[in-house]
Amino acid sequence: MAQTKKPLTTDETMTPETTDNTVKAPEYTGTRVERSNREIAELANRTYQHGWVTDIEMETVPHGLNEDVIRLISAKKEEPAWLLEWRLKAFRHWQTMTEPRWANVRYPEIDYQAQRYYAAPKRTSKELNSLDEVDRELLNTFEKLGIPLEEQKRLSGVAVDAVFDSVSVATTHQEILAKKGIIFCSFSEAVKNHPDLVRSYLGSVVPYTDNFFAALNSAVFSDGSFCYIPKGVRCPMDLSTYFRINAADTGQFERTLIVAEEGAFVNYLEGCTAPRRDENQLHAAVVELVALDNATVNYSTVQNWYSGDEQGRGGIFNFVTKRGKCLGRNSRISWTQVETGSAITWKYPGCILQGDNSVGEFYSVALSTNYQQADTGTKMIHLGKNTSSTVISKTISAAHGNNSYRGMVKVMPRAENARNYTQCDSLLIGNQCGAHTFPLIEVRNKTASVEHEASTSKISEDQLFYCKQRGIGPEDAISMVINGFCKEVFDHLPMEFAVEATKLLSVSLEGSVG
Amino acid sequence: MTEVAERLSDKEKFLDARSKPVEDHAPGWLRQLRDSGAKRFETLSFPTRKDEEWRFTDVKPIVRAAFEPSMQPPREAADPAVAAPHRFNAPGWTELVFVDGFFVPEASQLPDTGGLHVTSLAEAVRTDGALARKHLDTLAGDSGNIFNALNSACLTDGALVHAPRGYAETAPVHILYLTTNRQENRAAHPRNLIVLDETAEVTLIESYAGLTEAPYFNNAVTEIVLGDAAVLKRYAVLHEGPRGYHLSSVRVQQHANSVFRSFSAFLGGKIARNELKTRLAGEGADASLAGLYLAEGDQLIDNATGIEHASPQCTSRIRYKGVLGDTSHAVFSGAVHVHRDAQKTDSNQLNSNLLLSDAAAIDTRPILQIFADDVKCTHGATVGQPPREQIFYFQSRGISEAMARAILTCGFAGEVVDDISVEPLRTRLHNYIYNRYSPQK
Q1: Looking at the complex, does the CB of residue B173 fall below 8 Å from at least one CB of chain A?
Q2: Could you tell me if B275 and B396 lie in one domain?
Q3: Is the ipTM of this complex over 0.85?
Q4: Is residue B396 located within the same domain as residue B272?
Q5: In a domain, B50, yes or no
Q6: pLDDT tier for residue A502 given thresholds of 50, 70 and 90
Q7: Is B330 among the domain residues?
Q8: How many domains does chain B have?
């Protein structure tokens, strides 16, 4: 058949002869598969599309980390004394700790003194009253990233907190949210306007003693989002934070805190990008979620930090501590993540299921290609009665990528009737990559029911043959299989994110298959 | 006293036996092997709970206890009769009986096996040590396990089985290690070497039984080399005494198309830990590791299994089941490592656990590390109780809940036993399970 010769990747090479041979010539060029192929080809040529740098005047602190730098950051942010004290305590504790090396990732020694711990776009006026006063260059930056902050003002749908390097630039839709009593603002604003709330929850889920990177973050965190949903309120729109690293040799250390009061409900989305640079940049964030009685928090992440080039140069070191505490009865915390970026990913969003009948969920797709290394998974700690958790992890390794799932399910003695189901599947593309699974199950109660399943495979010849038989070429077949493989996780993402995630996967895998 | 100084004295104590004059006529190479074991023992440190592999097993009770290691048999002669109830006494079987770590020929049965070479290691070393010299410590030597090094340092006796090329077995070989109360706080370091040449087929039972209530320490090492297309069925039955400590290490090297079928039953011992690691070095090798651990009281049973797929087209299966009662604690880790060029690997791993008591604890870690793309690897782990529906089914037919639970527990544990091809052993284990979990007890 003529179709077997049909070039699949680009539009121009499609010769008129092939179209002449078929009766439905005009429709042929327009099939969905063809269109998406073109799209993929276009995207692939662009490789990492968020790799540009915004030229903007920055206000930074000197390189290095010491108590003076922390005092300076705190002073710049006009923080109360208790917060500075907390930072310093965290810093002193951090100095006693050693960097963890147990993860299945390899990277050169990080010089913590060579980093800059604060970088913010210079402000023209002290107080911003509306978006119009925000630097044009900044608004353009976010527009270019597909987050038009100005438009956001008019369009309802998603409320965005945009974080540029160390500070939050703008938060949209604050008025509508305020009417419902919802607080959604940058962390610095929250410290100023709602100090009691921040003080009572900060570090309650991830204490600064938790781990090396959490301690570092606690000492130098610059901004992030704060969200508080009052009792019985269902958040009328999805909340979102968009993180952008721009400045060179600057680390980003943001901190997100979400508190859902009794019966509250919120969907939270997080996205991130960074410019292409040959040096590695450090990102160490902390996310804390608290859910009280009957509250639900759904936290979704599409992580697309710069992942380094094909030789593995550059890229973000992503060391993140994310944890949710189901404090109340019947509370529910759900993590959904799509990890496609970063040179190194070290991330284990977990749930502490403390309230009776609470539910924890973790849905993850992690892709590592080129020389990316991901060590990610979850920790489900069952403390309350009738608690249940679900873990679905899908990892895809291609080129020289290495992907590890590291999970822990712990059922404590008082957790009667705890239930866990874990499934982690790995897909290998190419013979230079690796897929690893390190689950750990600790059960201290006989009524627990814990199941763990894992599989590793490549895309089977049978599947490809089946598609081929029906006229679907290898590239399309592979992208279909991968989409099917990830579907269970994508189903838990909000629409826009699911579309973006699907695109990201196709782009990242372009060229590594076939 | 500092921790370090304490550790040193702990170590010296273990090597004490070496300073006493040994009345054997060990050849130079064996002395050298012991010395290098002692050197490794001195450089390595005892595992703590910070070592990932030993995270859940605290060896302090063994390190701190005053076990008296001895490279000499106790003065009082062993009574061959003690072995009788633990032997199979089946016609044609070869049975080697060791009491407190030393071979007792009077209690053993060594029929003509038509080519199969079965002897005590001490005897082999005395007469013709070529095979032992060639293989000893080649697999366990650089394992990084301090107890393996200790075993080498104190190496005196054990079993040697050598099947020549093409040997087809006629009857199983049973190696029985008994610990008696002849000497309190005794440490023994049995060492087994099993070598199967090309296409040889052997069935082997290795059992450890404690006949004493007193504390003792068995530190066994078994090295197995399987030549091309050799087939070894190995059954290990660990039934140590209530205060017996058992650490053992089994290292297997499998050449092309060899088949290794392993089944381990853990029935007793205060702490019983077994490391079972096989390396699929040749194409088409096949390993299947099955196990059953039944724990009660304050027992700790730790199974560390590992399969290294170093060649293409190999198959591996791991299937371990556990039943835990009282305050017992079990640990299972299964590590499957697939090398870069080990394409067409087929690997499957399952660990299932039944908890009978609220105070029982289980830690399970099925690990997969895969560097090849054309592989089929799965693993699974479950922890739970018999489903309520099943118990209800029994009750609806007039069977009490206690009886229903007993039947389901026997069924759960019996499943892995069913696959045992040696009839007397299978029956013995089925009866044991039935007696242990029947409600009339």
Answers
A1: no
A2: no
A3: no
A4: no
A5: yes
A6: confident
A7: no
A8: 2
DSSP state of A132: G
Burial of B43 (0-12, 13-18, 19+ CB in 10 A): exposed
Mutation to test the A interface, candidates B57, B369, B385, most A Cβ within 10 Å: B369
Determine which helix (DSSP H) or strand (DSSP E) holds A216, and give its type and residue range: helix A212-220
Interface contact B340-A432, CB threshold 8 A? yes
The CA–CA distances, whole Å, from B17 to A42, A460, A499, B70 equal 75, 59, 70, 5
End-to-end Cα separation, chain B, in angstroms: 49
**The two structure tokens encoding residue A194:** 């709602």
Separation CA A50–CA A32 (nearest Å): 26
Please check whether residues B273 and B418 belong to one and the same domain.
Answer: no
**Pairs of CB atoms within 8 A across A/B:** 115
- Whether residue B127 is predicted with pLDDT greater than 80 in this model: the reply is yes
What does the pLDDT look like over A15-39, one tens digit per residue?
Answer: 343 334 443 434 444 455 555 555 5
Q: What is the average pLDDT score of chain B?
A: 88
Are B259 and B397 within one domain?
no
Q: Using the predicted structure, report yes or no on whether residue B332 has a pLDDT greater than 60.
A: yes
Please tell me whether residues B391 and B278 are part of one structural domain. no
SS3 assignment, position B37? helix
Helix, strand and coil in chain A, % to nearest 5: 30, 35, 40
| Alpha-carbon gap: B382 to the closest alpha carbon of chain A (Å) | 4
Report the mean per-residue pLDDT for chain A.
79
Task: State the pLDDT confidence band at A314, using cuts at 50, 70 and 90.
Answer: confident
Q: Where do the structural domains in chain A lie, given as residue ranges?
A: 2-44, 45-509
The domain in which residue B437 lies consists of 387-441
Question: Which of B371, B374, B382 to probe by mutation at the A interface, max A CB count within 10 Å?
Answer: B371
Please give the angle made by the CA atoms of A99, B54 and B215, to the nearest 5 degrees: 145
Residue B134 in any domain: the answer is yes
Q: Strand, helix or coil at B407?
A: helix
d(C-alpha A77, C-alpha A71), whole Å: 10
